[in-house]
Design brief:
single chain; alpha/beta; OB fold (Dihydrolipoamide Acetyltransferase, E2P); 51% helix; 16% strand; globular
Length: 670
């Protein structure tokens, strides 16, 4: 039945399985060729059974073909990202977006065109992240411009902290494998193209729209919110603004998503009410043009593309008088995005968007009809609550895995603030249209200022309530997948009253308990020394079972430490550490943490492991001691280029471990 109602279901599953297999498998070419040949042979052999009620051989060959297609698409995408020599080179790039202003630099994501080797340009693929010094070098650069830059590409690496977010994997899935630093003098040439692609023109229009907001009196934090909620420009947001919306459980209104596309499309449809019946085709076409224009201006993010494609498929079915299944339309939009960029299935935005909308389609209607309200206002409140509940259920596991927290008041904040955000989206979309009419656009800007101020005020109040956010939560990937499956089956039983999978549900619950227990036991039975890679700080942890003794002069516990402890359920015990040396025992190892070492200190402490702290550790009056340390570690606080005296480093059994270069240091303790 599902195959007939939702045919894209049997396409998406093997396609995604193939993409995921490409992440872990790297078979030889002859193996791939053999699988393809076998699939083709099986397909032709299955033709003999076409008259049978069920042609299983065709189904198997179709499944394998889609898996191989997903695998090859992913491999081709990764192969198109060029491998660069990590030495000074001249590269030509295309600017893909406006440079983002940061505290001490500008950051720009640039598309690689070519690398000039021995005066000969060699074509290159992928992107590079460039950090420019804050000067006038980027003042006239627009999306679509071509630059020739002299720089030294550096491969992007993770910091190596336990349970950290895989930033390298995240950027590589967006085509970025290298980063570099440059200044004004490193820009050799700046070429303005005669014609820009539609994508770059849309980004320039987006910036002009933000200037319109600014010119009509929307500034500061209000401008940042309006820009984020209407055109998807989040670079203006301050970090505390993001934190407030995350704690309140409504961060989705600041990231342009399907919500924004739905609000805009419904507004356009209602505004064109006079085109019903005979002119309904014109109404649909105008709405689709507006929605696709909105999608281009906001940068074609996966969540907006999902909503735009889904809307297009549904309206196309209406025009052809063949109503489309909503779930099939969602999966069809996912199919288009995956074919275009297979690694999109690993993007957090893609996963959050699709998990939310799939749960809404599957469970919202049944949950909504569980309660009946005669009064209009009460009914609208229940609609909003029902949508919020099922969407939060679908994204629960991802929220915990990504943010290590859960917003306790998500239901209240969404019911109150989402309607406000809808008004901001509508008003923000109308203002550029009315911009030439000064008195109207200024009046609309006044309304926008009031709406955004009220939105932030209410969000801040919600985020400041006691227990607004349940912190220090964590979950591994297998646990997240199983929990999502348990929630889906439970909702099916409760909302749809279709409880045919009791055994599967019990197996899933048992599996979740076993995996969680195994993780706890593994953590309890192990001990380790961890020197975290935290920029500008020396943070050392000694974990004994599920207790972490944290040694750091910093008052605030760093995010890297919190994520590690939240994911594995580890308790933190602070050990006060001043600026002086700290010597302590970890298992059978004696550890010295100091910014200065000399012969007297080494004789007094006889450490097995030395952790050098401070930006410039002092090493003086140091003859080779009777007992050399097993390991010397320079923390991420130590500046690049620091070296131990030659007579000491030559005597060490192991090379010095530099946190800045090699990442966090982890060692099992006995």
């Amino acid at each position: 039945m599902l195959n007939r109602e939702i045919p894209f279901l049997r396409i998406i599953i093997p396609l995604c399985a193939g993409v995921i297999s490409g992440l872990y498998l790297n078979p030889d070419n002859w193996v791939i060729f053999t699988v393809i040949l076998s699939c083709i042979s099986l397909f032709f052999f299955s033709i003999r059974f076409n008259k049978s009620p069920a042609n299983n051989l065709f189904g198997i060959s179709f499944f394998i073909a889609l898996m191989v297609s997903g695998f090859l698409l992913y491999k081709i995408e990764k192969k198109n990202i060029s491998i660069l020599d990590q030495e000074k080179s001249d590269i030509t790039v295309t600017v893909t977006d406006f440079p983002e202003e940061r505290e001490n630099s500008y950051r720009a994501r640039l598309k690689l065109n070519s690398v000039i080797t021995n005066g000969i340009p060699v074509s290159a693929g992928g992107h590079i992240m460039l950090y420019f010094k804050k000067d006038s070098a980027l003042s006239g650069i627009l999306p679509g411009d071509i630059l020739k830059i002299r720089c030294t590409p550096q491969e992007i690496l993770n910091r190596g902290n336990p349970c950290e977010f895989d930033y390298r994997f995240y950027l590589e899935n967006q085509g970025v494998r290298y980063m570099a630093f440059a200044s004004k003098k490193d820009i050799i040439a700046h070429i303005v193209p005669l014609k820009r692609s539609l994508k770059y023109k849309a980004l320039i229009i987006r910036e002009k729209i933000i200037d319109m907001y600014r010119n009509r009196g929307i500034t500061g934090r209000n401008l940042a919110l309006v820009a984020a909620m209407t055109v998807g420009e989040k670079a203006l947001l301050e970090q505390d603004q993001k934190d407030i919306f995350i704690r309140a459980g409504i961060m989705h209104i600041m990231a342009v998503s399907g919500l924004h596309a739905i609000v805009l499309s419904m507004f356009v449809f209602n505004m064109l009410f006079f085109l019903k019946r005979r002119f309904n085709i014109l109404r649909i076409i105008i709405a689709m043009i507006v929605l696709w224009g909105f999608a281009f201006i906001t940068g074609l993010t996966p969540s907006v593309m999902r909503a735009t494609l889904m809307f297009s498929f549904i309206q196309a079915g209406t025009l052809l008088k063949r109503p489309a299944n909503s779930m099939n339309s969602v999966l069809a939009s996912a199919f288009v995005l995956i074919i275009n960029r297979p690694s999109v299935i690993f993007d957090a935005g893609f996963l959050l968007s699709y998990s939310a909308v799939i749960f809404i389609i599957a469970f919202y209607t049944d949950l909504y009809y569980k309660l009946h309200f005669k009064r209009f206002f009460a009914d609208k409140l229940w609609q909003s609550a029902a949508v919020t509940i099922v969407a939060q259920a679908g994204t629960l596991s991802l929220t915990i895995m990504l943010f290590n927290r859960f917003p306790a008041y998500f239901l209240i904040t969404n019911i109150i603030i989402v309607p406000l955000s809808s008004l901001v989206i509508i008003a923000g979309s109308i203002l550029p249209v009315l911009y030439p009419v000064i008195f109207l656009s200024r009046f609309l800007a006044y309304i926008l200022n009031a709406l955004t101020s009220l939105t932030e005020y209410l969000t801040e109040k919600a985020a400041s309530l006691p227990g607004s956010s349940i912190e220090e939560l964590g979950m591994t990937l297998p646990e997240g997948i199983i929990l999502t499956s348990i929630i889906a089956l439970s909702l099916t039983a409760i909302v749809k009253k279709e409880f045919r999978s009791q055994n599967i549900l019990l197996v899933l619950i048992l599996s979740l308990v076993i995996i969680s227990t195994q993780r706890i036991i593994k953590t309890e039975r192990s001990n380790e020394l961890i020197v975290y890679n935290v920029p500008g700080a020396t943070v050392t942890g000694i974990r004994t079972g599920r207790t972490l003794k944290l040694i750091s002069p910093e008052k605030e516990i760093k995010t890297e430490v919190m994520r590690h402890c939240s994911t594995l359920g580890i308790r933190i015990e602070r050990i006060k550490a001043g600026n002086g040396p700290v010597c302590l025992m970890a298992g059978t190892k004696k550890i010295l943490i100091a910014g200065e070492i000399n012969s007297a200190i080494l004789r007094a402490t006889t450490p097995d492991i030395i952790i050098l702290s401070g930006s410039k550790p002092v090493i003086k009056d140091l003859s080779v001691p009777a007992k050399l340390p097993e390991i010397i570690i320079t923390s991420s606080e130590v500046i690049s280029g620091f070296k131990l005296p030659d007579h000491l480093s030559s005597q060490l059994k192991q090379p010095v471990h530099s946190i800045r270069k090699s990442g966090a240091f982890l060692m099992d303790l006995i």
